[in-house]
Structure formats: C-alpha cells, structure tokens
Design brief:
It is a single-pass membrane protein. Helices cover 56% and strands 19% of the residues. The protein is α+β, with helices and mostly antiparallel strands. The strands form 4 sheets. The chain has a 6-stranded antiparallel β-barrel with strand order 1-10-16-12-11-17. It starts with a helix and ends in a 5-residue tail after the last helix.
Length: 518
C-alpha cells in the first residue's frame, strides 16, 4: 500500500498542474487526494479485467457458434438424405445403403423413445438384499438331562428320523432304582401305620388299608407290612381293653359293696326303730340304741366313700380312653405329615427314574448327537442331542445388513430363491416378514476376541414366512421339498423406483455433496 501511494505521488508530481499545488496542501488534504487517485486506479484495473473476460466469452461463443453451425449443417444434410429419397448422392455407396440406414435410424428412434418412456414410467422394485436359512418355526429342540448320569444305551445316530416318544439314550438307573425301592418301602409302611392309627382312633373292629396296599398285598414285603400293623392293632386294642376291664371289675366290686352296705343299713335302721319302740314302752336300753345309731352312721359313710370310689374309677376309664385317643391322634398327625413327605419324595424319584430313558419330544431328524460312547458320563444340563422338527411349518431366518434396517419392517414382501433348486427351472417364491429383531446380533462364527471384547459381523435377524400355497403348487409339479438348513437368497421389497431414478440418483447424490467448501 505504501509503495502504491509513493508511485501515485510521483506520477502525479510529474503533472505540472498538480505539481505546484500539492506542496501547498495540508497532510490531510494530501491523504484525501491520494485515496481518490487509488480508487480511480482500482476502477481502471477492474475495467481492464472486464474487457479481458468479454474477449474470452466472445471467443468461446464464436467457437460454440461454429460448432452448432457445423452440427446444424450435418443434421440438415442427414434430414435431406432421409427426406429426399429421389436426390442424387455424391457417394454411390451411401445412396445404395440408404434403405438399411433409414431402417436402422427408425429402429434407433423407436428404441430410444420407448426405452426413455419405459425408464421414466415403468416401476422397478427397490429391494434390500439378504441371505437366510430355512428353519423350523419353533426352532430346533435341544435335548438335555437335568441330573446327568452314566450312558447305558444309545438308540439313535445322527441323521435318524425319530417320532415323539422314541428313545434316544438310556442312562444307568441302578442307583436311582435302589433309592426308589427304599422310599417305596417307607411309603408303604407309613400308609399301613396311618390306616392302623385311623382304625384305633375311630374304634374300628378291623383296619381298612388303602388301595395301594390292598392291590399289592401279593408282594411279600407289602403283606408283611400289613400283617405287622394288624398284630400291633390287635395288641394295642387288647391292652386298652384290659386296662378298662380292670377298672370295670373294680367298679363291679365297689357296686356290690354298696349293695351289701345298703342292705345292712336297711337292717340296722329296722333295729333302730324296734329299739326306739321298746324304749318308748320302757322295755329297752338306750345304750343298745346308741350302738345301732353309730353303726348306721358308719354304714352311711362307707356307702358314700364307696360311691365316690366308683365315680373315680369311672373317671379313670374315661381318662384312659381319652389318653389313648390323644396319643393316637398325635401319632396320626405325625404319620400323615410323614406320608405326604414320603409320597412327594417317591414321586420325585419316580420322575428321575423315568428320565433315565431320554425320549424325543417331537417328530423330527437328529441334527446333532453329542453322546457317542456307552459308559460315558453326561453332566447336569449338558446337551445330548438337537432335533429338527419335521411337522412344524418352515420359515426363513434372514440376516439383514445394518445399512438396510431403516427400510425393513414387518409385513414387507420378499422374493426368495433357494440355493438347492435350479435357478433356470425354478421360479422365484414369495414370502412375508413376520418378525424383525429389535437389536443387532453378532455372528459367532466370525466373532473374535480383541482387548477382552468380542468383535465380528453384526446384523439384524428377520423371520420370513414362506407362501406355502404358492410353493406347493410348484413343488407338486417339480417334486421340490424344503428341508431345514437350506440356504436362500432374499430380496426384501422396500418400494419401487423407475430406471431413470436408478440412473439419476447417484448423480444427484454426488451433486448434493459437490460444490461445497469447508
């Protein structure tokens, strides 16, 4: 800026008109004049630049005009060649080939017009591509064992078809069977004891055993248990009756004593009346009367005491019966509680015993069999086999890339091709999305550990229901059949676009990102 100011100053000093004036100006006026001169110079530079741009544009327009003129001449010649069928061509070869050229031109025009209209109007499916696997709608069944044990027998091999209830393996049941027998004996003993105590409590003549014992009384152990309880019932009944009988005999003796005392008292009272009559007549002695009165009092006292003893003995009888009932009731409650516990334990052991024979829960194919050695040990909860159900409906489990999840949702249609079928002769089948996982799933096969974290391919899971009506029509003709594990190529229809949109979208997307400056 300083150099420009100095140059302007020197240039203007050469002007004789200004040369004599500037020395007389103040510094502020001199600065104002320099600013004006600088602005004039900038305007002159812009004007020169504008002239250069105009010259460049004129040159470009001239070249474009020549190009357009040349193209126009060529088009005019071509049109004249097409329209003027009777004209004479400068080249005999061109004139001879005029018919085929015209045919080709019309074919090109029709192709371009029709193709353009089709690309602009005809809708094409927009799809998200995925791969999937045919699976059972209820997933494969994992066969496990709760307790584990030693393998005794293996009934199947991998790939075998099994029906519901067919055995897969058998575990050694020696230990559990012994436990069942012990617990069953305890349970039967408690049932017999319960029946005996009930009979004692209700003062029955005989024990009424439960059906479990009665139906198995042909078993020596059961017959022995019932016999022991019968003998115990009779012994306790006899013991109680004997004690009661002793009390009753004493009561009989005391009652006989009371009867005798009452008869003697009646006789003494007659003597007292006679003595009183004689004394009244002056013939009797008072001392004899006093003796009789004393004897009467003694007899009355003895009768009262004896009757009290009778009442006490009767109370002893009732107390003995009550104590027997209370004791029996207490024992019965304990036995009933023990019966319930024994029954639960027995049922639990029976359940464990029944599970030593591992059976198939569904009809299907043995996909995986992890047990291959007799005598091997199975841990608690360890997988024994994996069964692919055959009667369940089949669906496709598809892996959806993360970039496509925004356009994939439940209800969308899908086009399906199965890798096991010939693409040339097998049509594309249709399906419908029935489930989309809420979060991504990591591919365990490609996962690897890095810094204590698992990394690998992640994707969303979509379950696709196959249109079985459509499939069965084709399958009946071409003898096709779906099997779990078959691979499928899937196109999930997410919308429609024209071919023109397919061609223009990348361009418009790049244009959107272009011509931007940070």
């Amino acid at each position: 800026m300083g150099k420009k100011m100095s140059q302007l100053w020197n240039d203007n000093n050469n002007n004789n008109g200004i040369k004599g004036i500037i020395p007389k100006m103040s510094p502020q006026d001199r600065k104002n004049i320099m600013d004006v001169l600088l602005q004039n110079q900038q305007k002159q530079q812009k004007l020169e630049k504008s002239k250069w741009l105009k010259s460049l544009l004129k040159a470009i327009l001239l070249q474009l005009t020549r190009l357009i003129y040349g193209i126009g001449n060529a088009v005019d010649s071509f049109i004249s060649f097409i329209i003027n069928s009777k004209g004479t061509a400068k080249n005999i070869v061109v004139q001879t080939a005029r018919g085929p050229i015209l045919f080709g031109v019309w074919v090109m025009i029709i192709f371009i017009v029709v193709g353009g209209l089709w690309s602009a109007l005809a809708p094409l499916d927009s799809a998200a591509v995925a791969v999937g696997t045919v699976i059972s709608s209820t997933e494969n069944k994992i066969i496990q064992h709760q307790e584990g044990g030693i393998v005794k027998e293996i009934f199947v091999k991998q790939g075998d078809y099994v029906k519901t209830g067919n055995p897969i393996i058998a575990l050694d049941d020696t230990k559990i069977r012994a436990s069942v027998e012990i617990k069953l004996g305890q349970y039967r003993t408690l049932l017999a004891n319960q029946a005996r105590l009930t009979a004692e409590l209700e003062q029955q003549e005989e024990i009424i055993f439960s059906e479990i014992l009665v139906n198995n009384n042909h078993i020596p152990e059961v017959a022995k248990i019932m016999s022991i309880q019968q003998h115990l019932f009779q012994a306790r009944k006899k013991g109680l009756n004997a004690r009661i009988m002793q009390f009753e005999k004493r009561i009989d003796s005391l009652e006989a004593k009371v009867v005798a005392s009452k008869k003697q008292l009646e006789y003494v009272r007659k003597l007292i009346k006679n003595a009183e009559s004689l004394i009244a007549q002056g013939f009797g002695q008072k001392t004899e009367l006093d003796k009789l009165l004393v004897e009467e009092s003694s007899l009355v006292g003895n009768i009262i005491i004896t009757e009290l003893e009778i009442n006490s003995t009767q109370q002893d009888i009732e107390r003995t019966k009550s104590e027997a009932i209370d004791r029996t009731l207490s024992e019965l409650k304990e036995v009933e509680h023990a019966v319930i516990e024994a029954q639960e334990s027995y049922n639990s052991l029976i359940d464990i015993l029944s599970r030593t024979l591992v059976k198939s829960p569904v009809d299907g194919i043995i996909k995986v069999l992890d047990v291959n050695t007799k005598g091997g040990v199975i841990g608690s909860g360890q997988r024994i086999a994996e069964i692919t159900p055959s009667n369940d409906s089949l669906i496709i489990k598809a892996k959806i890339p993360q970039k496509n999840i925004d356009s994939v949702k439940v209800g969308l249609k899908a086009k399906i091709r199965f890798g096991a079928f010939k693409y040339r002769t097998t049509p594309v089948f249709t399906g419908r999305i029935v489930l989309v996982s809420p979060d991504t799933v990591q591919d365990q096969q490609s996962a690897m550990q890095f810094n204590n974290a698992m990394i690998g391919d992640t994707f969303y899971i979509a379950k696709i229901e196959i249109d079985m009506d459509e499939f069965n029509k084709v399958a009946k003709v071409q003898k096709l059949k779906l099997f779990p594990g078959m691979q499928a190529d899937i196109q999930i229809i997410t919308g429609t676009r024209t071919l023109l949109r397919y061609l223009l979208d990348p361009i418009t997307d790049n244009m959107f990102r272009a011509f931007t400056e940070k």
